[in-house]
Amino acid sequence: MTAKFLHSFPARNAFRLVSQNKKFFIVTCILQLLGIPLIMGSGMLEVYYSERRELTHDYSSYNFNYEAYMAIGCFCFGIAVLLGIFFGINAYREEWDKSKVDMLYSLPLTGKQRFFSDYLGGLGMYVIPYIGAVLLGWIVLFIMTPIVRSVMDSHEIGQLNTIYKYYLLITIGLFFLMCLYYTISSFVASCCGTLFENIYTNILLNLLIPGTFAAILAVITEIIDTMDFEYSWEFIGYTSPIGGLIYLIYLVFEKTSDVYYSYGSTYTASAGELGDLGLVPAYLRWILIIVVLTVAILILAWRLYEHRKAEHVGKPFVYIGIYYVILTAITVCILCILESGIEALIPVLIFSAIVYFIMEVIRKRGFKKFWFSAICYIITVVVALASMFSISATNAFGRAYYIPALASVTSIKLEFEGNYYDDIGYQLNFKDKEIISKIQDFQKECNQNRKNHYSTQLENAIDGYYELNYNNYNNSYEYYDEYYGEYYGEYYEQVESAEYYDNNYNNTYTYKIDPKYIPHISSCATLGITYYTITGSAIYRTYELYADEYINLMDMCIGTEVYAEANYNLLKSRLENTYKQYDNNMSKTYYPSKINFAAAPPNTNDYYRSYESEQYMQIQLSDVESNLNLLTECYLQDLKNMTSEDFRTSEIICNIVGLPVRACNQETYALLQKWGFEEFSLYQKYYSILGTDTQKLDIRIYAPETYQTSSLQYPSNTLQAIFVKPDATNIPSYQNTIYSIIDLDTSLQDLMQIARKYYISSEPCYVLVINNSKYMIPSEYSELAEQVINNKQTNHTASPANQSNIMGIF
Amino acid sequence: MMQLKATVKQFEDFKALDGVDLEIPKGTAFGLLGSNGAGKSTILRLFSGIYKQESGEVLIDGEPVYDNIQAKQKVFFINDETIQFSNFTLMQLKDFYKQFYPSFSEEIFEKLESAIQLPRNKKINTFSKGMKRQAIVIIGIACCTPYLLLDEAFDGLDPTMRIIVKRMLVDAMCERELTVVISSHNLKEINEMCDMAGLLHHGKIVFNRQLDSLKGTVHKIQTAFADKTRVFTAKDFPSLEILHFERTQSIYHIIAKGEEEEIHQALAPFKPVLADMVPLSLEEVFIYELEVLGYDSQVFA
């Protein structure tokens, strides 16, 4: 069979191609055989040297400039891969040479045989050196493995498996991308009649198609806030070899990072873990689609080739459609600049027109039928602009708010990227149709809120008493007033509106709903919703949740097994990663007999930072494994018992490995207390924020009789205090004072120590508000509060108080 | 036999062949004549399977040619360019074609090559135009296809080499009933080599017949009539198919189709005092046939 094929006419024609391109082929072989082995060899050598450095603690020796070798390897490999265009062009070079096309077409071959023999001949020359180089890379890896292994700690040996997996995944992916790349050049060869058009069409097609999709998706995701550009990479990955390469890198490295993050794995991720996080299915799906795409382009190229005539030689574009695709793509790419603002319309139109007409002049080799080009340009621009506006006006033709039918959904994944308060970042996977249905209803509500231009400022107001300070001008004041009246009216009532200078107003609103239902959050979560359907597709939408939306969503999740299990698993893996140690051989992990268990203040909820903070509480713990197991079991039980009401109202006592322990988590709380945990003071809770220049701390003090605000913000290591107190003429006066952070006086620290979250009294009290969380100052400490105000106050005038509103919150 | 049946070939707006019917019997040396752009090369490319006709049929031994390996194996086409697979040496080119044409004769190749003495292992792109032509001609003959199509095949050959190549072709025709179709503007060579010729103009066949009969059916007559006061015109001879009519003083030069006897009978009523019949060369037939069709060489006279 093989011998018969090798002696067939198409095989002979393919050999003719190889024979004619021998030098080109040799250059590619050299580049490929240098490229990949050099990359792998230098990479492995660097691993070896870095391990040697670690082993000997000699960081001055064993230096190896692997970057230079890797750069040379990448350069050689990159050039060899890019040559795919020229293999494609060369395979069909007789097609755009009138004298040569006669000789080729008169050979006793059918069009199909001619096409496929040229295709396979060129493809063979392109990919065979690559396959050889990949095999050589494996040889380098296997030769280097025992050398590297000899200096590695046993627990690190898994890294080698990771390197093998990466190499395998990337090289296989690249193979299919190279086939796609070459096939596109064959497709272009079928469509073009001259060498010049072939080259520039190849280049433009490879750059423009992914570029255009990226630009359009960027516009869509910019316009439509429920769509996230990050999830466009997969789609762009199918559009072209370049897009595919970007997606391959994203897929392998990003998804693997997700594995590490989600599982807390220190070094390696097994194939099972990779599969669990969807890398392998995503990779296989991507490969499958790339193969299908390649075959589809190949069939299209073949059909076009068969319909192409010998006399088309010399015609710039045999099939003009490809030219208009490129031209439209260029125009659309340019028009996408308008996403940055419609004011750029005229320059963008001028620029796109210039590019358009240059392309037309090149194609027509002159100015023939220029009026026709002008009409085409106008149509292209009108259609492109109309499409952009339609996308915007129709919310991407309804796709932005699309919710699949319940019957078609197999499961749903909620991804929380966390918020300032609850910065965990976890996933919940629901298969229960009832919960899926509830989440769909929730999503409909979110969609409706966005369609109604629900104000994002509400998220800041959810925490009760809040001031809205904004500048209104006479001509726009009513609009804003009406605006807030419409959307805030349900939740707020205006309690104060005072002009403090010119047309600037200070408006004070207060929350009307039951204060018990005000959660302790100052900002909202980013939620990703992914529907997995029975057809195997995934539909992803993202929402920047408003606070009340977040609460509504948590109402559905809290108390479910899925929520409890997700947080339980997270706690378990984090505890293991934090407290387990390696044995002397570094081959396995174990819990030591004693640990300093860390409980962090509520605001120090960052998993990694909590152990660096001086404010965490260390608890000596023995019998570590069983105690920590007990902790996780208690936490699981508490999460299962926790109600949404608890979630809203229960104060966070502390954070353990970044996870919150609430007052309502009784078993966990009791266990921590049994271990010796004591509640953090307010000062401790906020100390970690005070100690960093990346967080802001907003401190205000409200006096019971007078209206007075003190605001302290920490954008850097300075404090800004704003004092407000209306005077007798009812005009508030403002004065900003900048303090150094070290000026934070001890009286404020004292005040934070005695502030109480829960305090019921008929006596008028001072109120301490820190980052919108309110704490009562018991009346016996009013003098201390007054002292704090007096210490900072520079301008103080009298005004009626709004005590009832302030007090009503608590 | 090679056949075109009502063949139409169009290049965008331009109709290169407009319903052409043509039959070239096996073993014939057929000369394709015609004005520039008449469709000669188009016919050769149709027969070699390079072009596909818009309508009609293009047949070789009763089989359609386009995309038909069996039919294409019977034809070897040498076009008017000298750029072949120029990265090959002569031997590589020979080996390449040998794979596609099972009837390829090494013996013939060796014989022809030794007669011409081309460099065997030099790349063809280093050859002169004439050498490239010689190379492809000997390969074409050595392929031993029943049909050999030559488009301006003798261009670039020196006179000696022209004779050698012509002899090669004639030998092949004699030895294995090779059918040769030659398209050329060199009517002398067609005259020498071909036994049949077809004239094309504006995509249509003007005539297609044996060269001998062609020359015998068109005559040039120099005549003078007794009545010198009368000025004769072509209309005075309605029974004659006159291609060209010219008067110089009392002498008339007439190119007319028909047998000698018929022409004499047509002139007889006007009492010619002189009636000399001069046989026409192929070139003259070409010129006068096309003149009738408006393709007049006197347009700039």
Task: Describe this structure as you would to a colleague.
The complex is a heterodimer of chains A (810) and B (301). Chain A is globular. Chain A has a four-stranded antiparallel β-sheet. In chain A, helix 8 (158-191) runs antiparallel to helix 11, helix 11 (241-263) packs antiparallel against helix 13 and helix 15 packs across helix 16 (370-393). By secondary structure, chain A is α+β, with helices and mostly antiparallel strands. In chain A, a hairpin with a 2-residue loop joins strand 4 and strand 5. With 301 residues, chain B is of the alpha/beta class. Chain B contains ten helices and 14 strands. In chain B, the strands form three sheets. Chain B has a six-stranded mixed β-sheet with strand order 6-7-8-3-9-10, with helices on both faces. Chain B has a four-stranded antiparallel β-sheet with strand order 2-1-4-5, covered by helices on one side. In chain B, helix 4 runs antiparallel to helix 5. The longest helix of chain B has 18 residues, at 159-176. Chain A binds chain B through residues 9, 12, 16, 19-20, 97-103, 105-111, 309-311, and chain B through 11, 45, 48-52, 67-70, 72-73, 75-77, 79, 81-85, 87-88, 92, 96, 99-101.
